[in-house]
Amino acid sequence: MVKFERFMLDNGLKVLVHIDQSTPMAVVNVLYDVGARDEDAQQTGFAHLFEHLMFGGSVNIPDYDEPLQVAGGENNAYTTNDLTNYYCQLPSENLETAFWLESDRMLSLAFSKKSLDVQRKVVCEEFKEHYINKPYGDVWHIMRELAFKEHPYRWMTIGKELSHVENAQLEDVKRFFFKHYTPSNAILVVAGNVSVQQVRELAEKWFGDIPPGEKHKRDLPVEPEQKEERRMTVHRKVPADAIYKTWHMCSRLDDDYYATDLLTDILGGGASSRLYQALVKEQQLFTGINCYHFGSLDAGLLAIDGQLVKGVDIKKAEDAIEAELDKIRHGLVDARELQKVQNKTESVMAFEDMSVMNRAGSLAFYELLGDGELMNTEFKKYQDVSVHDLKRIANQVMQPSNSNTLWYLAEN
C-alpha cells in the first residue's frame, strides 16, 4: 500500500506527496499531460523535441544539470504518445533545489534560436540513427501508418517525418509550450524523506505564482473500427526476414485491458511463453518472438513480432503463429497457466514499486489516469480475470478483419 496526500494550488497544479523516511533521498516528478498524440499532423515530433529543450536552460538558469549535480542529484525524462515525464532525485536536505529548477523551466523556458538549433540537431541525429539508418528502424513508422488512419497514434513519438523537426520554427515551438506546459496541465509528485507541510510550502513558494494556463481539452479523432485485414510487404537491407502483426485493442482504462495484458504475457512474455516454446524451441521457425502491447491511454495496438530462422518460408511462419492463436481462441488455457501470469504480474508490480523514484512516477501516472489511488487497487482487476475472459478477448481482438501484417523481408 503506497500512502500519499494530495492537494491543489490555486493555479491548478496537482501535488501528491508520498512520505518514505527510510531513505535519505527525495524525488521530484513533474508529469505534463501532453504527448505526441497532441501534435498537429503537419508538425509532429514537438513533444519529444521539448523533452530536449527543457534541459537546454531557462531564463534564470542557463544549465539545468549543473546546479542539480552540485546538489548531489540526477535527472532524466521520457516522452510517449500520451505524456511527458521529468524526474530528478537528490538528497532530501537539498529538496528546494529541485523545486527551483523545475518551477523556473515551467515559468520561463529559455527560447532562443541557438537553443532550438542545438536541440533540433540532436533530435534529427537521433531520428537518423535509430529510425532511418538502423536495421528494422522504420518498422513502426510503417506499421502505425498501416494500422491507424485517423488517430494521431499513426505517428511515433520521434515524429512522422524528419522534415517536421528540421523545419520547426521558434514561434511554433513557443506556441506549443504555452499551450501545454502549464500548471493546470501538470502533476507534481514529491516522494521520499519529506513532509507534507514542507512540500506544501515549497510548492506555494516556487509554483504558486506561475500563471495557470488553460487546461488542454482533448478532442482527438476516434479511430474507425477496422473491418478488413491489411497487409504490406517491404524489402530492406536487414540480416533476416521478420514478421510483425498488430490488432486494435481497448484503451488503458477499459476493463478488458487487464485480460488483454495477461493474454500478451501468456503468448509472448519470455522464454516460457507459448509462442517462444512452440515456434522458437520446438518448431525452430523463429530466432526470437514477442507478444506485447503499448499500454497507450487511448485504444491502441496488441502486437506480435519475430525474426525468422534463415531459410524458413514466411507464410509457414505466419501460419504457425495463427495456429497458436487458434488454441487460445478455442479456450485452451487452463487456470494454472492464468495463475502463473497473474503471479508474475503481481511480482513485477511489487518490484517496480520498491524504489522511491518508481513510486513517484507511478503515482503521477495513475493520477493522470484519474486517481493516484488506482496504484493500490489495480492488481485486484488482474486477479478478477478468468480463463473465459482470455478466450473472449482472443476472439474479439485477434481476428483477421482487425489485423495488420507486415512482412519485412531481407533483400537478396
What would you say this structure looks like, in words?
There is one protein chain. With 412 residues, the protein is of the alpha+beta class. It has 2 domains: 5-207, Cytochrome Bc1 Complex, Chain A, domain 1 (2-Layer Sandwich); 230-410, Cytochrome Bc1 Complex, Chain A, domain 1. The protein is built from 15 helices and 11 strands. The protein has a 6-stranded mixed beta sheet with strand order 1-2-6-3-5-4, with helices on both faces. A 5-stranded mixed beta sheet has the order 7-11-8-10-9, with helices on both faces.
Side-by-side strand order of the widest sheet: 1-2-6-3-5-4
Radius of gyration from the alpha-carbon trace, in angstroms: 23 Å
From the spread of the alpha carbons, the general shape counts as globular
Runs in which pLDDT lies below 50 for 5 or more consecutive residues are: none
E-strand count: 11
CATH architecture assignment name of the largest domain: 2-Layer Sandwich
The succession of helices and strands, N to C, reads EEEHHEEHHHHHEHEEHHEEHHHHHE
